[in-house]
Amino acid sequence: FVNIFRVEYTPINLGRLAAFAAGSEVTPEALVEAGLIKTTKQPVVILGRGEVDRPLTVKVQRISASARSKIEAAGGTVELLPLE
Questions:
Q1: pLDDT, tens digit, for every residue of 29-50?
Q2: CA distances from 69 to 2, 41, 53, 63, 73 (A)
């Protein structure tokens, strides 16, 4: 059985978001500009491996619970974008 409704995400670990300045907005388009992902055709998931030491505004399609808690503990916010 092959699930035709499966969604493939592009994973990004939290530690790779260190390239962004404090207060900046992390979106799929900004991740492409920073060279962390190649395209915005697949939805993005942020995983909790690594640390974040600055407040970031993260707008992605999916985020793990540990990544959300680390971002909010650093003073940042998380917004989930709809799947396209």
A1: 999 999 999 999 999 999 999 9
A2: 34, 27, 13, 10, 6
Which two three-digit tokens encode residue 70? 């680390």
Alpha-carbon dihedral sign for residues 45, 49, 50, 55: positive
Length reported for the chain: 84
Q: Are 46 and 67 in contact (CB under 8 A)?
A: yes
Picking from 3, 17, 15, the residue whose alpha carbon sits closest to that of residue 60 is 17
SS3 1: coil
Flag whether the pTM goes above 0.85.
yes
pLDDT in tens, 42-74: 999 999 999 998 899 999 999 999 999 999 999
